[in-house]
## 1
Amino acid sequence: MKIISDKVYSDMFFIGALWNLAIGLGCLTLFRLSMRLLYGAKAVTNNIVATLPLRFFYGSVAIFGWGYYMVSRDLKKNRGIVWMGILAKLIIFVTFIYYYLKKNIKIIPVLLGFGDFIFTILFSLFLWETRNNVAKQIRKSSG
């Protein structure tokens, strides 16, 4: 028996898309502010070598947002995006905690990473609950 309906899962991935798009595009748009929120007042914001990796990271966050939107439109396709999202969100969460404990970043990224951790749990629940549907599709297509 499913705990969560397909409609709720679809809405969850849509919210996940908005979350990622807002963070990725928002941080790209307000880049200097995002640097200061991550690293504090001493953040280097005018050196392309120092900022380019973070710009790519924010772009990737937004691209994942587009992927979650695709999942929200069709839950049976794009499961690979969900797997990638779980892995990426766990890496972000653990990395932010690690660097926060080393006093290299501020608390705000950790809180955002905790949001990602919540999505990781929900995405994992989705994959677990829909695993039998995928197995049925594979058996049906192999005939």
## 2
Amino acid sequence: MEENKDKVINFIKKSNNTEDSAEKKFLKEFPFIKITKDDNGNSFKEEYLLEYANKCFYIVTVLKNNGISPALYKYKVPYKLFFEFIDNFKTETNGKIIDIERYIPEEPA
């Protein structure tokens, strides 16, 4: 277990972020860490991160009760529509999101 100690993320530490925008006030209610470099010590490049994000899909698992018994619905949502999906979900459905997992389709060799 000792060999994986460097991969453990400690969310308990408080942030010393002093920015006061409304977004920051909301977000600082949640534990977070800031990552500025990849595992190899290289700084992130925004264009590559966005390119990666656009390849991602999210499998959103929703619990709905149809009156007879509960059922799970799994939606495959592309990154570009993810936030629209969440916004519409909040206003137009009576289900509950119980899981969101990232899915990256494999490219053929």
